[in-house]
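Page 37, continued from 36.
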């Protein structure tokens, strides 16, 4: 059984989930199509659904499935790449979401570690992902490294080396950490390493990163786009200027919150 190809590199928006102002705070699926169009018109050609920004871990399985289905429709319509996050749930639900994502033929699947019986080492984490991969063997699979939320802070270079040897459809990670030294050590030509930290995009690009999944792409995508294009042209002065402006925006957003 062959694994479907995944070739996307660049900027991917971790989409928000909209809720209706009703008694049950039901998911507002009607906004997904215009939301996708807005992102596409702004130059964003890929989305991550049911991640941290999308509050996927606060949704039930039926809501997560329906959200993925509506985004799949929109992504096909607007020719966008779709990644779906399936973790942050009991394993039976993770397995169900993995099967569902594979049936939808999403472009890639992202998954958190086990959040209660946390892996104690890189080998434990690989074993967990081997079990997840059984339910989506044809879909490219990535690990969601976000230690500030998950509490799992293992060596990503070591984990990647082990996972690539043992999991056929494993292709990389979403790296949400400020430790650029470890992040840079993960980089290889055949890996997909998505930066998940908005405030260090410029520095990460300088270190060799080529892809990012950042919350601000849902709000001010033009900043990240200009930083990326400036770095490609070698215009470091403008890239640093735009990074400073973007970081100031993040700081203002976080004045009344904890994490971004």
């Amino acid at each position: 059984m062959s694994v479907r190809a995944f070739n996307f590199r660049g900027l991917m928006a971790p989409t928000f989930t909209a809720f209706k102002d009703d008694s049950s705070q039901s998911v507002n699926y009607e906004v997904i199509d215009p939301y996708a169009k807005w992102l596409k018109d702004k130059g964003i050609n890929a989305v991550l659904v049911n991640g941290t920004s999308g509050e996927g871990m606060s949704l039930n399985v039926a809501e997560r499935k329906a959200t993925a289905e509506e985004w799949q429709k929109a992504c096909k319509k607007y020719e966008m790449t779709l990644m779906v996050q399936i973790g942050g749930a009991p394993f039976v639900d993770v397995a169900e979401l993995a099967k569902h994502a594979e049936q939808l033929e999403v472009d890639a699947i992202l998954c958190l570690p086990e959040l209660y019986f946390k892996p104690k080492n890189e080998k434990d984490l690989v074993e967990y992902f081997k079990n997840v991969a059984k339910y989506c063997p044809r879909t490219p699979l990535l690990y969601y490294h976000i230690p500030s939320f998950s509490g799992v802070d293992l060596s990503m270079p070591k984990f990647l080396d082990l996972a690539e040897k043992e999991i056929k459809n494993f292709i990389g990670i979403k790296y949400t950490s400020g430790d650029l030294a470890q992040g840079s050590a993960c980089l290889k030509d055949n890996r997909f390493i998505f930066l998940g930290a908005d405030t260090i995009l410029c520095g990460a690009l300088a270190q060799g990163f080529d892809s990012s999944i950042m919350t601000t792409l849902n709000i001010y995508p033009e900043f990240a786009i200009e930083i990326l294009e400036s770095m490609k042209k070698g215009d470091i002065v403008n890239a640093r200027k735009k990074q400073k402006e973007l970081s100031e925006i993040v700081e203002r957003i976080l004045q009344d919150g904890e994490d971004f």
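The CA atoms of residues 128 and 236 lie 41 Å apart. Flag for discussion at group meeting. The mean pLDDT is 96.
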